[in-house]
Specification:
Length: 262
């Protein structure tokens, strides 16, 4: 039996990847990673025009597509997945990245806001099930990458935000912890269907919009004493989605500069 080369294992030619939240700071970088690896990318966003704009910037053989998809709407999830299949002909990999949330912390979050933010987990599950059912109906393998967070594993540092901005929301921590465990649950149920389910949990990857003073405080909490750059998620995302990770399922891969190693 011949052994696949590294180039072959990471090559995603012939694969279609649907990535939600593809217009975001980290979503755009991951979308570029899959396109660069040869995949057809379907960029999902709540705004169709923004999704299409991202798709048009992607390299590789293409073509790439944009679809409207809102994780908080069951109808939008169904319609968005159908649109992705119609546009690309198939979907082989799902990256559940998009989410909506309220900038409210433990002091002022309302019951309504808390519950609405947790609906993102429902959306992740419904879209994952769409992918599972689709690949099973085709008799092919599939891969799902949930996007978690280091804050689904560890608590926050209150002093990193104090007197600067809203603290890391309690409902965000609850959501991401749930997504990580959902990953394990779905992985064991869908392994027999040849569908792998993993979670990629970024550490601190602040965008240029983040308060500079908060970023400086976060650097002091990291063993590497710096923040992550979007391109530093590309390799990890590709590992979990490609044949390079064919024996990896039910895992939570932390890319956090050593944050959770303290």
């Amino acid at each position: 039996m011949s052994e696949s080369t590294i180039e072959q294992l990471f090559d995603m030619t012939g694969q279609t990847v649907l990535i939600t939240g593809a217009t975001g700071f980290l979503g755009q970088s991951m979308a570029r990673a899959f396109a660069e690896a040869g995949a057809t990318v379907v960029a999902g966003s709540r705004e169709l025009s923004r999704a299409q704009a991202v798709a048009e910037t992607l390299s590789g053989d293409g073509p790439h597509f944009g679809v409207e998809l809102d994780h908080l709407s069951e109808e939008s999830i169904s319609d968005g997945f159908s649109a992705a299949v119609e546009a690309a002909g198939q979907v082989d990999v799902l990256v559940n990245n998009g989410q909506q949330g309220h900038a409210m912390d433990v002091t002022d979050v309302t019951a309504e806001a808390f519950s609405e933010d947790l609906q993102n987990a429902t959306g992740y599950f419904l879209l994952a099930r769409q992918l599972r059912d689709h690949v099973v109906s085709r008799g092919v393998a599939g891969a799902i990458v949930m996007i978690g967070s280091m804050y689904g594993v560890v608590g926050s540092y209150p002093d990193a935000y104090e007197d600067i901005c809203t603290a890391s929301p309690v409902q965000y921590h609850t959501l991401k912890g749930g997504i990580i465990h959902m990953t394990r649950h779905l992985a064991v149920y869908w392994a027999k269907d040849n569908v792998r389910v993993n979670c990629l949990s970024p550490g601190p990857f602040p965008s240029e919009k983040a308060p500079a003073a908060m970023v400086e405080r976060l650097k002091q909490k990291s063993p590497m004493a710096r923040m992550g750059q979007p391109e530093e998620l590309k390799g990890a995302a590709l590992l979990l989605a490609s044949r390079a990770g064919s024996y990896i399922t039910g895992q939570n891969l932390l890319v956090d500069g050593g944050w959770t190693a303290w």
